[in-house]
Specification:
Blueprint (H helix, E strand, L loop, with lengths): L8 H20 L4 H11 L5 H26 L4 H21 L5 H21 L13 H21 L4 H13 L3 H25 L5 H25 L1 H25 L1
Helix pairs in contact: 1-2, 1-3, 1-9, 2-3, 3-8, 3-9, 4-6, 4-8, 5-10, 6-7, 6-8, 7-8, 8-10
Protein backbone atom coordinates (compact mmCIF):
# COMPACT_ATOMS: atom_id res chain seq x y z
CA UNK A 1 0.00 0.00 0.00
CA UNK A 2 1.29 3.46 -0.94
CA UNK A 3 1.66 5.75 2.07
CA UNK A 4 0.42 9.30 2.37
CA UNK A 5 3.08 11.69 1.00
CA UNK A 6 5.04 13.78 3.48
CA UNK A 7 2.56 16.60 3.98
CA UNK A 8 1.87 18.91 6.91
CA UNK A 9 -1.09 18.61 9.24
CA UNK A 10 -2.55 21.84 7.85
CA UNK A 11 -2.29 20.53 4.29
CA UNK A 12 -4.08 17.35 5.30
CA UNK A 13 -6.84 19.40 6.99
CA UNK A 14 -7.10 21.51 3.84
CA UNK A 15 -7.51 18.39 1.68
CA UNK A 16 -10.10 16.92 4.06
CA UNK A 17 -12.19 20.12 3.96
CA UNK A 18 -11.93 20.19 0.17
CA UNK A 19 -13.08 16.56 0.01
CA UNK A 20 -16.06 17.26 2.28
CA UNK A 21 -17.15 20.27 0.20
CA UNK A 22 -16.68 18.34 -3.04
CA UNK A 23 -18.83 15.51 -1.69
CA UNK A 24 -21.69 17.91 -0.93
CA UNK A 25 -21.53 19.56 -4.36
CA UNK A 26 -21.22 16.21 -6.13
CA UNK A 27 -24.29 14.84 -4.37
CA UNK A 28 -26.45 17.77 -5.44
CA UNK A 29 -25.36 18.48 -9.02
CA UNK A 30 -21.98 16.90 -9.71
CA UNK A 31 -18.82 18.88 -10.42
CA UNK A 32 -17.21 18.38 -7.01
CA UNK A 33 -13.92 17.87 -8.78
CA UNK A 34 -13.92 21.62 -9.35
CA UNK A 35 -12.87 21.87 -5.70
CA UNK A 36 -11.15 18.60 -4.93
CA UNK A 37 -8.82 18.21 -7.91
CA UNK A 38 -7.34 21.74 -7.76
CA UNK A 39 -6.95 21.33 -3.98
CA UNK A 40 -4.94 18.15 -4.52
CA UNK A 41 -2.77 19.84 -7.12
CA UNK A 42 -1.99 22.57 -4.59
CA UNK A 43 -1.49 20.24 -1.62
CA UNK A 44 0.53 17.56 -3.44
CA UNK A 45 2.91 19.44 -5.74
CA UNK A 46 5.34 16.49 -5.89
CA UNK A 47 2.78 13.82 -6.78
CA UNK A 48 2.48 12.57 -10.35
CA UNK A 49 -0.63 13.38 -12.44
CA UNK A 50 -1.64 9.69 -12.36
CA UNK A 51 -1.38 9.62 -8.56
CA UNK A 52 -3.53 12.74 -8.21
CA UNK A 53 -6.16 11.64 -10.74
CA UNK A 54 -6.49 8.13 -9.31
CA UNK A 55 -6.49 9.26 -5.66
CA UNK A 56 -9.11 11.87 -6.54
CA UNK A 57 -11.26 9.07 -8.01
CA UNK A 58 -10.94 6.98 -4.83
CA UNK A 59 -11.99 9.89 -2.64
CA UNK A 60 -14.87 10.80 -4.94
CA UNK A 61 -16.11 7.20 -5.00
CA UNK A 62 -16.95 7.28 -1.28
CA UNK A 63 -19.14 10.37 -1.50
CA UNK A 64 -20.71 9.33 -4.78
CA UNK A 65 -21.58 5.88 -3.47
CA UNK A 66 -23.07 7.32 -0.28
CA UNK A 67 -25.23 9.85 -2.11
CA UNK A 68 -26.22 7.18 -4.67
CA UNK A 69 -27.55 4.97 -1.87
CA UNK A 70 -29.40 7.91 -0.31
CA UNK A 71 -30.97 8.87 -3.64
CA UNK A 72 -31.74 5.24 -4.39
CA UNK A 73 -33.69 4.83 -1.16
CA UNK A 74 -35.52 8.18 -1.21
CA UNK A 75 -36.03 8.85 -4.93
CA UNK A 76 -36.18 5.24 -6.21
CA UNK A 77 -34.95 5.71 -9.81
CA UNK A 78 -36.25 3.12 -12.28
CA UNK A 79 -33.85 0.16 -12.46
CA UNK A 80 -34.51 -0.57 -16.14
CA UNK A 81 -32.90 2.76 -17.03
CA UNK A 82 -30.26 3.20 -14.38
CA UNK A 83 -28.69 -0.29 -14.56
CA UNK A 84 -27.73 -0.21 -18.27
CA UNK A 85 -26.79 3.46 -17.89
CA UNK A 86 -24.38 2.62 -15.06
CA UNK A 87 -22.89 -0.47 -16.74
CA UNK A 88 -22.18 1.35 -20.00
CA UNK A 89 -20.85 4.37 -18.12
CA UNK A 90 -18.42 2.16 -16.19
CA UNK A 91 -17.16 0.48 -19.36
CA UNK A 92 -16.85 3.84 -21.09
CA UNK A 93 -14.87 5.23 -18.17
CA UNK A 94 -12.47 2.28 -18.21
CA UNK A 95 -11.89 2.82 -21.93
CA UNK A 96 -11.34 6.53 -21.32
CA UNK A 97 -8.79 5.81 -18.59
CA UNK A 98 -6.87 3.52 -20.95
CA UNK A 99 -6.37 6.32 -23.46
CA UNK A 100 -6.07 9.13 -20.90
CA UNK A 101 -2.28 9.31 -21.06
CA UNK A 102 -2.23 9.28 -24.87
CA UNK A 103 -4.60 12.14 -25.66
CA UNK A 104 -3.41 15.73 -25.04
CA UNK A 105 -5.53 17.53 -22.45
CA UNK A 106 -5.33 20.63 -24.65
CA UNK A 107 -7.65 18.94 -27.16
CA UNK A 108 -10.41 18.46 -24.63
CA UNK A 109 -10.54 21.68 -22.62
CA UNK A 110 -11.73 24.07 -25.38
CA UNK A 111 -14.42 21.56 -26.43
CA UNK A 112 -15.58 21.08 -22.84
CA UNK A 113 -15.62 24.84 -22.28
CA UNK A 114 -17.90 25.39 -25.28
CA UNK A 115 -20.19 22.56 -24.17
CA UNK A 116 -20.47 23.95 -20.64
CA UNK A 117 -21.28 27.44 -21.89
CA UNK A 118 -24.01 25.95 -24.08
CA UNK A 119 -25.37 23.92 -21.15
CA UNK A 120 -25.45 26.99 -18.88
CA UNK A 121 -27.19 29.23 -21.44
CA UNK A 122 -29.75 26.59 -22.38
CA UNK A 123 -30.59 25.82 -18.73
CA UNK A 124 -30.77 29.50 -17.74
CA UNK A 125 -33.07 30.41 -20.66
CA UNK A 126 -35.46 27.52 -19.97
CA UNK A 127 -36.59 27.87 -16.34
CA UNK A 128 -39.08 25.03 -16.78
CA UNK A 129 -36.32 22.61 -17.80
CA UNK A 130 -36.09 19.81 -15.27
CA UNK A 131 -39.01 21.04 -13.19
CA UNK A 132 -40.91 17.81 -13.85
CA UNK A 133 -40.33 14.50 -15.59
CA UNK A 134 -41.61 14.38 -19.18
CA UNK A 135 -39.79 11.54 -20.93
CA UNK A 136 -38.97 12.25 -24.58
CA UNK A 137 -38.59 8.63 -25.68
CA UNK A 138 -40.56 5.42 -25.13
CA UNK A 139 -39.45 1.82 -24.71
CA UNK A 140 -36.38 0.75 -26.61
CA UNK A 141 -35.47 4.28 -27.78
CA UNK A 142 -35.40 5.47 -24.17
CA UNK A 143 -32.99 2.74 -23.06
CA UNK A 144 -30.77 3.20 -26.11
CA UNK A 145 -30.53 6.93 -25.36
CA UNK A 146 -29.65 6.19 -21.72
CA UNK A 147 -26.93 3.73 -22.82
CA UNK A 148 -25.56 6.29 -25.27
CA UNK A 149 -25.34 8.88 -22.50
CA UNK A 150 -23.54 6.35 -20.30
CA UNK A 151 -20.91 5.39 -22.89
CA UNK A 152 -20.09 8.91 -24.06
CA UNK A 153 -19.95 10.63 -20.67
CA UNK A 154 -18.33 7.59 -19.03
CA UNK A 155 -15.53 7.74 -21.60
CA UNK A 156 -15.13 11.45 -20.94
CA UNK A 157 -14.89 10.84 -17.18
CA UNK A 158 -12.16 8.23 -17.59
CA UNK A 159 -10.16 10.33 -20.03
CA UNK A 160 -10.61 13.83 -18.58
CA UNK A 161 -13.15 14.13 -15.75
CA UNK A 162 -14.11 17.72 -14.80
CA UNK A 163 -17.87 18.28 -14.80
CA UNK A 164 -18.84 14.64 -15.40
CA UNK A 165 -21.69 14.71 -12.89
CA UNK A 166 -23.03 17.95 -14.34
CA UNK A 167 -22.89 16.55 -17.88
CA UNK A 168 -24.73 13.41 -16.76
CA UNK A 169 -27.49 15.42 -15.11
CA UNK A 170 -27.88 17.76 -18.07
CA UNK A 171 -28.04 14.85 -20.53
CA UNK A 172 -30.66 13.06 -18.45
CA UNK A 173 -32.72 16.25 -18.12
CA UNK A 174 -32.23 17.73 -21.60
CA UNK A 175 -32.12 14.56 -23.69
CA UNK A 176 -34.20 12.00 -21.78
CA UNK A 177 -36.63 14.40 -20.07
CA UNK A 178 -36.17 13.65 -16.35
CA UNK A 179 -36.59 16.28 -13.67
CA UNK A 180 -33.44 17.47 -11.92
CA UNK A 181 -34.01 15.37 -8.81
CA UNK A 182 -34.52 12.11 -10.75
CA UNK A 183 -31.58 13.00 -12.99
CA UNK A 184 -29.35 13.58 -9.95
CA UNK A 185 -30.26 10.17 -8.53
CA UNK A 186 -29.43 8.36 -11.76
CA UNK A 187 -26.28 10.41 -12.32
CA UNK A 188 -24.91 9.46 -8.89
CA UNK A 189 -25.37 5.75 -9.56
CA UNK A 190 -23.73 6.09 -12.99
CA UNK A 191 -20.92 8.13 -11.43
CA UNK A 192 -20.16 5.28 -9.02
CA UNK A 193 -19.65 3.04 -12.05
CA UNK A 194 -17.42 5.56 -13.84
CA UNK A 195 -15.24 5.96 -10.75
CA UNK A 196 -14.89 2.19 -10.35
CA UNK A 197 -14.02 1.74 -14.03
CA UNK A 198 -11.27 4.37 -13.95
CA UNK A 199 -9.89 3.24 -10.56
CA UNK A 200 -9.58 -0.31 -11.86
CA UNK A 201 -7.37 0.83 -14.74
CA UNK A 202 -5.27 3.18 -12.60
CA UNK A 203 -4.79 0.48 -9.94
CA UNK A 204 -3.29 -1.86 -12.52
CA UNK A 205 -0.52 0.71 -12.92
CA UNK A 206 -0.02 1.17 -9.15
CA UNK A 207 -0.96 4.85 -9.30
CA UNK A 208 -3.38 5.47 -6.40
CA UNK A 209 -2.25 6.84 -3.03
CA UNK A 210 -4.62 4.52 -1.20
CA UNK A 211 -4.21 5.79 2.36
CA UNK A 212 -4.74 9.44 1.45
CA UNK A 213 -7.63 8.45 -0.80
CA UNK A 214 -9.33 6.63 2.07
CA UNK A 215 -8.84 9.56 4.46
CA UNK A 216 -10.26 12.07 1.98
CA UNK A 217 -12.93 9.57 0.98
CA UNK A 218 -14.29 9.53 4.54
CA UNK A 219 -14.78 13.31 4.43
CA UNK A 220 -16.22 13.10 0.93
CA UNK A 221 -18.68 10.47 2.14
CA UNK A 222 -20.02 12.73 4.92
CA UNK A 223 -20.37 15.60 2.44
CA UNK A 224 -22.14 13.32 -0.03
CA UNK A 225 -24.62 12.12 2.59
CA UNK A 226 -25.51 15.66 3.66
CA UNK A 227 -25.68 16.88 0.06
CA UNK A 228 -28.03 14.09 -1.03
CA UNK A 229 -30.34 14.71 1.91
CA UNK A 230 -30.37 18.44 1.13
CA UNK A 231 -31.21 17.81 -2.54
CA UNK A 232 -34.05 15.42 -1.70
CA UNK A 233 -35.48 17.81 0.89
CA UNK A 234 -35.25 20.95 -1.29
CA UNK A 235 -36.35 19.42 -4.62
CA UNK A 236 -35.67 20.05 -8.31
CA UNK A 237 -35.81 23.86 -8.16
CA UNK A 238 -32.99 23.98 -5.62
CA UNK A 239 -30.93 21.47 -7.62
CA UNK A 240 -31.36 23.59 -10.77
CA UNK A 241 -30.01 26.71 -9.03
CA UNK A 242 -26.98 24.88 -7.63
CA UNK A 243 -26.47 23.25 -11.03
CA UNK A 244 -26.16 26.68 -12.69
CA UNK A 245 -23.76 27.91 -9.99
CA UNK A 246 -21.48 24.86 -10.33
CA UNK A 247 -21.53 24.94 -14.15
CA UNK A 248 -20.60 28.64 -14.01
CA UNK A 249 -17.67 27.76 -11.76
CA UNK A 250 -16.56 25.04 -14.16
CA UNK A 251 -16.73 27.53 -17.06
CA UNK A 252 -14.53 30.01 -15.19
CA UNK A 253 -12.05 27.28 -14.21
CA UNK A 254 -11.73 25.78 -17.69
CA UNK A 255 -11.79 29.22 -19.31
CA UNK A 256 -8.78 30.21 -17.23
CA UNK A 257 -6.96 27.00 -18.22
CA UNK A 258 -7.73 27.50 -21.92
CA UNK A 259 -6.78 31.17 -22.17
CA UNK A 260 -4.16 31.59 -19.43
CA UNK A 261 -2.99 28.05 -18.55
Amino acid sequence: MVCVPDISTWTLIFLILAAFSAGWIDAVVGGGGLLQLPAMLLGLPNATPAQILSTNKISSLFGTATSAVTFGVKVRPDKKTVIPLAILAGLGSAAGAVVATRIPMAWFKPIVLVLLIGVAIYTALKPSLGARTALRFDGREHYLAACGVGVVIGFYDGAVGPGTGSFLIFALVGLLGYNFLQASAKAKIANVATNLGAIGIFALHGAPLWKLGLIMGSANMVGGLLGARTAVARGSKFVRVVFLVVVSGLILRLGYDVFFG
